[in-house]
Amino acid sequence: MKILIIDDDPLILDLQETLLTDAGYEILTSTDSGKALELILANKPDCVIADIMMPEIDGLQILKQINDNKNLIDTKVIIVSSKSFEFDRRQAMKMGAVGFITKPIDPATYCTQIFSLFSDSIQMTFWGVRGTLPVPGERALKYGGNTSCVTLAFPKGELFIFDAGTGIKELSNHMMTTRAGMINAKIFISHPHWDHINALPFFSPLYIPGNEFEILGASHAGTSMETLISAQMDDIYFPISMQQLGSRIHFRDLTQGEYVVDGIAIKTFLLNHPGNCLGYRVDYHGRSVCYITDNELFLADSPLYDAGYVEKLVNFIQGADVLITDCTYLDDEYLSKVGWGHSCVSQVAAMAHQANVKHLYLFHHDPDQDDTNIDKKLIKSKAALEKLGSKTIVLAPAETQRFTI
Fold first, then answer.
1. C-alpha dihedral sign at 31, 33, 39, 45
2. Residue 162: how many CB atoms within 10 A of its CB?
3. Residue partners of 194: CB distance under 8 A and separation at least 6
4. CB neighbour list of residue 97: distance below 8 Å, 6 or more residues apart
5. In the structure, what pLDDT confidence band is assigned to residue 124 with cuts at 50, 70 and 90?
6. Which of the listed residues 92, 321, 375, 380 has the most CB atoms within 10 Å of its CB?
């Protein structure tokens, strides 16, 4: 792939050239933005990487010149700039850029970012896979001990965070040390039980002026998501209130339905769990990710079994590339936990198979389970799917593990 880099800073230009050449790309460079279009037409690069702030013609003007030229319809443009304002990112995206990377460039992640933009891939990361309570110590060395938090990072910079259990503190640590510029993200709350919201006050980016977040989730009996989240930071429980946070924070109440968030299609589904608990389905450019926690699938011979609910849930997750779902118990453990709002291995495997899910990720592990128990759940799930003749691939993700979709 041929890439043309245009930047009036020769040091930044040399750094990008070295990194991308070492990664196997064919690189052309220029510090003269005034002659950019001439150079682009002469060399027909697959991609142009341009800075915004340059003399004569800036990066956004170069982007417009490319968009206006019918001979360059297949040329992608990535903006790399020290301007970290959300306004500039939005402008670049509206004008047709495929990505916006903020300076200073991180040599450790730069080529991965460029590749992700070319491939239009989603980066899915697990920051906490436990349920109910965090599990410290030797029992949780393999899979980690933090509670629910998963992120989806999209090529153009959109960031979706699902739940704010203690795993969001791991995400916070990562973002504070690796992410440059202002942060704009959506935080989707499945439901306001403690293991899904109690670490939100420890998410450091919330305290930084200039960052912007929208917190989305289901209201409860007339109690809004804003009230639900703010209440746990009442001064009786926590020394800092929502009003003292430095970032801009918006709230949005969701019901079961269909939405568009940051230009990405989102569907929600009310799950079988005490109170209002939402499952989410994200559809992006032919790929789908379902986040289904917490949820109880009753055994088929139980008087509580609701075939209509199961059918609706199967339709909701039908054909998903990724299903992240509550698989709290082994089957023998579940027998004494009926009605607690969580599922067991056999029912989760049957649901994933029935819905033709491509990849099943076991999630929300009971705090009494150690790594060996989770290993056992994975083995049992594989056996159950094999018995069904299923093509579904099952995994048990570990904390901080990343997958490309």
1. positive
2. 26
3. none
4. 63, 77, 78, 79, 156
5. very high
6. 92
Following CA atoms 124, 127, 132, 133 in sequence, which dihedral angle do they give, to the nearest 10 degrees? 170
Query: Max Cα separation, the chain?
Result: 74
CATH fold for domain 2-119 = Rossmann fold (3.40.50)
CA torsion, points 399, 319, 277, 374, in degrees to nearest 10? -30
Separation of alpha carbons 387 and 378, rounded Å: 14
Closest CA to 364 of 325, 320, 314: 325
pTM: predicted TM-score of the whole model, two decimal places: 0.86
Is residue 59 within 8 Å of 29, Cβ to Cβ?
no
Strand order in the sheet with 99-102: 26-30, 2-6, 47-50, 76-81, 99-102
87 versus 4: the higher-pLDDT residue is: 4
Structure tokens at 356: 């033709």
Name the band, by pLDDT with cuts 50, 70 and 90, for residue 234.
confident
CA-based R_g, the chain, Å: 23
Q: Which CATH architecture has domain 123-404?
A: 4-Layer Sandwich (3.60)
Where do we find the tokens 């568009």?
260
Residue type, 175: M
DSSP secondary structure letter of residue 105: P
Q: With bands split at pLDDT 50, 70 and 90, how would you rate the model's confidence at 180?
A: low
Instruction: Give the separation between CA 300 and CA 38, rounded to whole angstroms.
Output: 68
CATH 3.40.50.2300 domain locations along the chain: 2-119
Give the pLDDT band (50/70/90) at residue 87: confident
Share of the chain above pLDDT 70, in %: 100
Q: Enumerate the CATH 3.60.15.10 domain ranges in the chain, comma separated.
A: 123-404
Give the strands of the sheet with 248-254, arranged side by side. 248-254, 212-218, 184-188, 159-162, 149-153, 123-128, 402-404
Q: What is the model's pLDDT at position 86?
A: 77
